[in-house]
Amino acid sequence: MSPVTPVSPGSAGTGARRPFGARLSEASAALGPLAVGVDPHPGLLDAWGLPDDPSGLERFALTCLEALGGTVAAVKPQAAFFERHGSRGVAVLERLLAGLADAGTLSVLDVKRGDVGSTMTAYAQASLADGAPLAADAVTLSPFLGVGSLRPALDLAAATGRGVFVLALTSNPEGAAVQHARDAGGVAVAAAVARAAAAENAGALARGELGSVGLVVGATTGTAAADLGVDLVGCGGPLLAPGVGAQGAGPAELAQVFGPARGQVLATSSRAVLAAGPSVGALRAAARDAAERCALALAP
Ligand SMILES: O=C(O)c1cc(=O)[nH]c(=O)n1[C@@H]1O[C@H](COP(=O)(O)O)[C@@H](O)[C@H]1O
């Protein structure tokens, strides 16, 4: 594998690091507001001429690392595609995360964790603690056991300079049944999640910085945020926007969905970029092209 040049300071390894929000702002400004998703679907492994086993997964992940490390602001591995290969798959995920840290590229581990008290503490330690084999710069969290149940992860992320993206308005149509529901006072679930993020980000906001507690808001969600009173600007954190590419959203949807909050967006796309592989050069070019299109769509 050829070496890659670090472009963004900080890593998911050990040692003091600046808050995730500040590091993400810098990486997005330098390389465009895009996280390329590493989702090794069986069909993609096949399209790349690789077997659907740990050896194929390893080749896939190392090709992504070579193409994407130093090329884009962030890389978002989806944990389930590694876990389905058992312990050898998880070892590949560990290696990918370590390689991204060495390359100076931010990692967002898509695990969508959320659980009760002491179990949430263990989930937090698995991906947000210094020295944890699966530590990433940020993780995705599910608030549907109650936003308060995420406290162990929020605290550990803050203590270690890492970040979280909490599901608010997901890109899949089924999400609306839960996320658009309103409480007795008329506050939508998604709006309550955004308010909770705003409270966590208050300190960063006061310093004029992007916070480290982000939301997941799909680029496919149309006017839902506005309709439901989800204060995207006011949440003060980064907005992870899946749905770009294979799920149908493009530059026009990014601009429409995020409006005045577009400066906070980290768009994410997996299959649409990965389809350019297995050539490292073609994958890198597709990632750069996607990053530039996102930068244009989200420019102030
Ligand atoms: O948290 C996520 O990353 C996520 C949230 C969401 O609302 N929708 C969504 O598609 N995702 C993830 O983003 C990726 C989208 O992949 P593509 O549709 O191939 O770009 C998948 O890994 C999904 O699990």
UniProtKB/TrEMBL annotation:
InterPro entries: Aldolase_TIM, OMPdecase_type-2, OMPdeCOase_dom, RibuloseP-bd_barrel
Entry keyword annotation includes Lyase: yes
EC number from the UniProt entry: 4.1.1.23
Gene Ontology molecular function: orotidine-5'-phosphate decarboxylase activity
Reactions it catalyzes: orotidine 5'-phosphate + H(+) = UMP + CO2
UniProt superkingdom: Bacteria
Keywords per UniProt: Decarboxylase, Lyase, Pyrimidine biosynthesis
Pathway: Pyrimidine metabolism; UMP biosynthesis via de novo pathway; UMP from orotate: step 2/2
GO biological process: 'de novo' pyrimidine nucleobase biosynthetic process; 'de novo' UMP biosynthetic process
Segment forming the signal sequence: none
Pfam families membership: OMPdecase (PF00215)
Domain Orotidine 5'-phosphate decarboxylase: 33-286
Similarity comment: Belongs to the OMP decarboxylase family. Type 2 subfamily.
NCBIfam families: pyrF_sub2
PANTHER family: OROTIDINE 5'-PHOSPHATE DECARBOXYLASE
Name assigned to this protein: Orotidine-5'-phosphate decarboxylase
